[in-house]
Every structure is written in structure tokens, then in C-alpha cells.
Amino acid sequence: MVKPTLLVLAAGMGSRYGSLKQMDGVGPNNEAIIDYSIYDAIRAGFGKVVFVIRHSFEKEFREVFNAERFGHRIEVEFVFQELEYLPEGCSVPEGRQKPWGTNHALMMAANVIREPFAVINADDFYGAEAYKTIGDYLSQLDGVKNKYCMVAYDLNKTLSENGTVSRGICGVDENGDLTAMVERTQIERMPDGRVLYHDGGADEELEETVPVSMNLFGFTPDYFGYSTEYFKEWFRENSTTPKAEFFLPLMVNKLIKEGTASLRVLRSSAQWFGVTYKEDKPALVASIEKMIEEGKYPRNLWK
User: Fold this and answer.
1) Phi and psi (nearest 5°) for 234?
2) Which of 292, 261, 250, 225 shows the shortest CA–CA distance to 36?
3) Predicted TM-score (pTM) above 0.90
4) I need a surface site. Which of 95, 103, 106, 169 has the fewest CB within 10 A?
């Protein structure tokens, strides 16, 4: 069995949160969400972590998140997402400032990943069960192509009490494979208990346990080649739109729709935590403290 790699998308600055939230302490010894992600990945059998960061905070990031911090229990590498890091034939349009999106960030790791890998957002807390589930699946894919996976969560375990959220609603066939992801925005729990989304001004109710994507995907290395080729096509059509982004679900949906690849939807009953808003942080801190008291994590992760 192969040891999978964990790819951490950490180049975003978290505009709504107002700081470099990847560095923000949530544990009792100032551990960041990333620390818990790496700890869970090590326990789940991952052999390497690759961070996608930006040169503007490289020094600060490397000083904190390095192999020594993690007790040399996992190999650590860094790659960089910048506007100008584009496939041959593409160039940054005048005035473009917004990053190219999550799947572009993933593409930056093409030269350092040769094994099945999982992708996570740096500022999301996925839970130990999720890493074990996806790690076990990926470890069986050595040499396999076009068979991907994701961990999906129940919608009601991904909501914020402090504002609306956007989620990728997943369609799943009888084999447990993804049929499509549809992005729904402005999702919130209403005072009467219903979960609604307000796309286009029309309210529509969503099932509490409908599976949603939280960008916890698993791929084999062939995914990089597909991404580079489709990015060129996408770039020709979208490069002059200042806020257009090349998202992971966009790439996944294309490969699923055309039948190039299949993607197994692995379900997690875990509570997902994120810090979409500053007000979300106290609930995460309290939840981590509860898990420490229950023996799920040591009080000092890396001691």
C-alpha cells in the first residue's frame, strides 16, 4: 500500500476573516487548524504534506509550519501559487489581481506529487475520521488512474450560526459515485429550523443530510495533466473576467460529465468546522477543548 500525500491549499488570505487565518491559534497551545489537520493525517498514514502558499508570506509560514514542528513525523514541501504561474501560452491580463482559484492552486504541486493525494483547505477542520476514511481509500490506488474520491459531509454539520455559507451540493448514484456538484450560495438555517438557500432571490429548502463538498478531495497524479489542459481552455474563455476562478468542482464536474473519471463519495458523519467569520472561532476553540477532554487529541499536539 502506498502512503498518500496531503496537499494543503494555504495561499488564500481569508478576506472575510480579515487576517492570515491559516496562522491563527485555536488550540490550547496556540495550535492552528493546520496543526490538527497534519496530526490527523499522520495518524491516518499520510507520508508527506505539501503546502501551497504565496511568496509574500513564505518566511512567516515556513518558520511556523515545518518538519521540525511536526516532530519529523511527516515529510514537508512547499509550492507557490502566484498570478503569473500559468501554463505555456497564457499570460496575466492587465488589471487582474484575484488569484486563479482552488484548482489552479492544486496545479502548482504537479512537480512534487507522484502518489495518490488528498486536497484540503488550510482553514477547515475536517476531523480525524475524515482523514482515516480518505487515507484508507487513497492507499489502495497506487498505479491507478481516473478513480478519484471525496469526503462529503451532511449539510447540517457544515453551517455557520454567524452568517450564510456556500456549499457544493452533491448528487450521488446507486454505486456511491458522484454525478454532479451544484454550487448553492446564501445557505442558512432559518428561525423556524429549516435550511434554505437564497440563490437569485428565490428561497428553496434543502435536506438536512444532503451530502455537500467541503473541498476534501482525493486524486491520483493523472489529475494534474487534465487540469493543465482544461485550464488553457478555461483561460481562453474567462481570462478577461476579473473575478473568474478555476475551482476544483468545475474541473471535477467536467471529468465526471464527459466520463473520463469516476469519483467515489465517501460519507462522513463528523462535524465540520470552519472559520468563515471571526465569530465562528469561539465555537471551534470550545469544540477542540471538548475533544481534548474526551481523549481524542493530546493537550499539546507536538510535545
Assistant:
1) -60, -40
2) 292
3) yes
4) 95
